[in-house]
Amino acid sequence: QVQPVESGGGLVQAGGSLRLSCAASGRTISTYAMGWFRQAQGKEREFVAAISGSGGSAYYADYADSVKGRFAISRDNAMNTVYLQMNSLKPEDTALYYCVARSGSMYYTRERHWYDYWGQGTQVTVSS
């Protein structure tokens, strides 16, 4: 069992930055693909970013078009933690952000059903 626990959400003005953290307990996540999804009120949960697990010397990342160039996902396997750096935040980024883990595979995906562990979420609110 892996339990992702998110932190770092909060209220920020448009144009500001936040860094979300996802600390995973239970198992080492170094080989797992990890990601972030978000859900705004009244909308479906959507993919934000994902990063591959360790399979060599490089990690690969994928981003939703809406956040590309503004958000950056990274991981610190020694800390069993994944991060989401969010810059140039917009009011439309307001949502509950979930950290996800895909056990048994280092390959990321945008499809949420492939992620078998989900955190409880951390709220990000961007004011205009």
Structure description:
The chain has 128 residues and is an all-beta fold. It has no helices and 11 strands. It has strands at residues 3-7, 10-13, 18-25, 33-39, 46-51, 61-63, 71-76, 81-86, 95-102, 117-118, 122-127. The strands form 2 sheets. Strands 2, 4, 5, 6, 9, 10 and 11 form a 7-stranded mixed sheet that branches. Strands 1-3-8-7 form a 4-stranded antiparallel sheet, with no helix packed on it. The N and C termini lie far apart (40 Å). The model has no long low-confidence stretch (mean pLDDT 95).
Key traits:
mainly beta, globular, single chain, about 130 residues
Structural class: mainly beta
How many DSSP-defined strands? 11
Give the mean pLDDT: 95
* Order of SSEs: EEEEEEEEEEE
Helix content: under 10%
Main beta sheet: 7 strands, mixed
Number of helices: 0
Strand content: over 45%
Give the terminus-to-terminus CA distance.
40 Å
Unreliable stretches, pLDDT < 50, 5 or more residues? none
Q: How would you describe the shape?
A: globular
Rg from alpha-carbon coordinates: 14 Å
Topology:
Elements: E1 3-7, E2 10-13, E3 18-25, E4 33-39, E5 46-51, E6 61-63, E7 71-76, E8 81-86, E9 95-102, E10 117-118, E11 122-127
Parallel strand pairs: 2-11
Antiparallel strand pairs: 1-3, 3-8, 4-5, 4-9, 5-6, 7-8, 9-10, 9-11
Summarize it:
By secondary structure, the chain is an all-beta fold. The chain is built from no helices and eleven strands.
